[in-house]
Amino acid sequence: MMKKMLLSIVFAAMTLPANAAEDQREYESLLSESKVWTMSYHGVVNPEVYGDIYHFTDTKLVGDTVINDIHFMRKYQRQWSLGEETPADWTATNDYLGQEGGKIYRYSDRTQNVVLDMDVSLNVGDRIGFVDELGYELPSFFVATAVSDTILTGADDNKPRRCVEVQLDAPQVADMWIEGIGSVTLGITGMEWLLASGAIPKLYKCTDGDAVIYQSTLSPGYYHPLVVRGGKKWTYRHDTFENVYDYYYILEGDTVIAGKNCLKMYSENKGNQGEIRYEGALYEEDMKVYLFYEEIDVPEVMYDFNCQVGDTLHFQGPSLVMQAIESVEILGMSRKRYDFQAQIETDESNEIFVLGNESWLEGIGSMKDFFNMLPLYGNYNSLVACEVNGVTIYQSPTAIQSVRSYKPKADGAIYDLQGRRLSSPPRKGIYIQNGKKMIAR
Q: What is the DSSP letter of 15?
């Protein structure tokens, strides 16, 4: 039976609204009596690894109640502890979930307020603020850091869903909102983390009838795109024996090359009087990141996140042999880390020399240098931070805070990408001179 109620809707204003195309999009509804969300709650001991699961909660939605022309369904739950059987009986709660477009609302019988919980229509850079159930505006807000349509690994329906990565303005709290499923990090509703004192909630599984539409592991099968709009910035540190300085890569500005929609990549080298240089244009397809070098209209593969253990990736420079893939937690978000061994084979004897190790982070890139150049002899490069629209999505735990001034030695020496000194520039390709990448055409 459908009930109809009229109450005031309370939510904070969202800045930078989504574009018109997203406003017209039809979003899969969370509201369905056939869906069940299973939450797992972990202890607070060693929260960085989420301890041992000690409690589960199933949630389903029942009924149809209209509040201010928005359809809501009541939440029913059943709870059990690790080792116990799942109870057969469900208990009605005081909370309701509603949806209009991409916005997910929560209503409580206790306060009779409607509050905004999530919004899967956000674009990168959009911000969304919240109020609590009593109508008090909270000081924090979420910022969308990445958006993509993704087929979730392990989902039975093989259906692309809009996935919005968000981060609280405090860097340690991140979440992902998935169309038709909801929040994966902070509960079935985005504000549940405020109510889960003493436990860490995670969405363990979401089913629709007999079909599993979401199944959690440490990495939930969602691919974090690397090339995203909204102003993405990488900070790397160049450390020689005597000097240290930071340099930056900045992804900002649209362009079209050879029919591909790209974003422009710039570098800023504070060790070279703050020189800003255009590096090329990036685009991403099928978990591969491509780069158009300056005026060259044939792209090169920079990153291939499809690779598996044992694969060898051949780039301009050393070959990278995949050693391991594992899931890691970065500022509250699960990402895959790809560990490589960099090696080179001589032309004369086919002897293989191991040059060192390299790691990539999904959605972030190389831990040594974005363009995958291993350190030349006598220096070391490392990723310090990565941010999107001013929101930090990676921060090195061992970053050196004090940076000394440095001016690169301009002796004219020429090196290839393996760090070998050359007598003259190559006829074609990329080489290093006076600390800069040069292109011979």
A: B
